[in-house]
Structures are given as C-alpha cells and as structure tokens.
Design brief:
By secondary structure, this protein is an alpha+beta fold. The chain has 3 domains: 1-30; 31-96 and 185-231, Arc Repressor Mutant, subunit A, CATH 1.10.10.10; 103-178, Arc Repressor Mutant, subunit A (Orthogonal Bundle), CATH 1.10.10.10. The protein has helices at residues 2-30, 36-47, 53-60, 64-76, 99-108, 111-122, 128-134, 141-153, 172-179, 187-199, 240-243; strands at 51-52, 80-85, 88-93, 157-162, 165-170, 203-209, 213-219, 225-231. Strand 4 (157-162) and strand 5 form a beta hairpin.
Length: 244
C-alpha cells in the first residue's frame, strides 16, 4: 500500500511537471516578440541592421549571456538572422530588407567604410591616394583598397581606368541607398510578421503602414493590447565636419 501511494504521487508529480513545462513553452511562444527585452532588440535591429553583438550589449546594458539567450530565441524562430563579418557576428531582422540591402548595410557598418563611401559621393572621380588622405583621420592605402573592393562588389562604387590611373565614382546602387528605396517596408515583410504573431495564437492588426514605419496592435492573452512600433532609418552621410 505504501509503495502504491508513492507510485501514485510520482505519477501525479510527473503529470504536473509536464503540464508546467507545456505551459512555460506555450507562454514563451506567445511572448516571443511581446517580451520587452526581445521587442527592444528587434526594434533596434530594424533601425540598425548589421549591429554587432557587443554594440547591442552595451546599448541595452545587458549581460552578454542574457543577450545571447534572447538573440538565440529570436533566431531560432526565424525572426532575425546573423552572419559573420570581419570576424564579428552581426544581426539583422529576417525578411525586413532584401539580401542585397542587408549585405550593403553590413559592408557600410564599419565607420571607415562609411567615411570612404561618403568621400566618394562628395568627390566623384577621386583617386585612391586622395581618399586615403582626404578622410579624417587618414588611413593606410591598403585599408582604403580593402574597403573599396568590398564597396565595388555590391555596386556602391565603380572604377574607371585610364592608363595606369584609376578613378572612383559612385555606383548605381549608391542612388538607391541615398533615396531610401533600399529601406522601404515591403508588403511581404508585413505578411511575414503577421503570420509569425498568429502562430503564437495572437491577433495582430495593422494600425499604420508606410515605407518607413509599421505599427501593429496585438491582442494579448491577458486581454491587454500591445503596440509594436518598428521604424526604418535611412543610411546617413557623414557630415562634412567629420570629413575635414
């Protein structure tokens, strides 16, 4: 009889543990984007695609282990993606921009690359030596060559050779970057995000949708509405004072 009671108690405990685990998983699924930390991470990545892990940790003032856990959860659910660039891992929202745009933003992420590109925009037809001396602080020719190669790979710049001299001009993609067409919120992204929220048994509603902003109202399980507000930021030129 004593053994039977112990067996029954163990079965009850196992059932309770199973229900608690199921409940925790369900809550986690429901709150994936509604969790305040993950929502903030996602919003930051929407405005700053290609953010480095340590930049996120510093901005959010989170322990690295905590940030890594939240990023892993978002990536496992295909809400964000990460790639390694120059030995560092960078993160960006999945589906928000085209693969081409994400690569462009990643290449422009280093300040030196962005300054070089800005210099070419303001001084079309420059030579490599002029760029190396023109940006402040000046950089080594090899560093300039490295970034110019990457900028040319994605069409941000183009080179024209005349004999032994090479001039650098803005490429076709540069205009798209400047006019903001690379950062417009697409209908396919809105559909993707709505489906992700519906997978968690939520009821999202589009409140505002423009090329640069998406606002969703989400009906939460506890009966309170949650507002998700994502804004897109255009790439910004370095100011002349930073170049001179």
């Amino acid at each position: 009889m004593h053994l039977l009671c112990i067996l029954i108690i163990n079965i009850i405990n196992l059932g309770y543990d199973f229900l608690m685990a199921f409940s925790a998983d369900e809550t986690e699924s429901l709150s994936l984007l509604l969790h305040p930390v993950r929502r903030k991470i996602y919003s930051i990545l929407a405005e700053n695609p290609g953010s480095y892990f340590f930049d996120l940790a510093k901005f959010l003032e989170l322990p690295q282990g905590t940030l890594n856990w939240h990023l892993k959860r978002l990536e496992e659910d295909s809400l964000i993606k990460s790639i390694k660039y120059a030995g560092k891992r960078v993160y960006y929202p999945a589906g928000l921009r085209s693969a081409e745009a994400e690569r462009i933003y990643t290449i422009l992420r280093p300040p030196t690359a962005s300054k070089i590109f800005t210099y070419v925009l303001n001084h079309p037809g420059s030579f490599q030596s002029q760029i190396a001396q023109g940006i402040k602080p000046s950089v080594h020719h090899d560093t300039v060559r490295y970034h110019l190669t990457r900028l040319e790979d994605v069409g941000l710049i183009e080179t024209k050779r005349s004999g032994r001299t090479v001039q650098i001009f803005p490429g076709e993609v540069a205009e798209n970057l400047q006019n903001g067409s690379l950062t417009a919120i697409s209908d396919s992204y809105v559909h993707f995000l709505l489906e992700k929220l519906r997978e968690g048994c939520l009821h999202p509603e589009v409140v505002l949708k423009s090329k640069k902003q998406l606002v969703l109202r989400v009906e939460c399980p506890n009966g309170e509405d949650m507002i998700l507000n994502f804004k897109m930021s255009d790439w910004q030129l370095f100011t002349p004072s930073e170049e001179e």
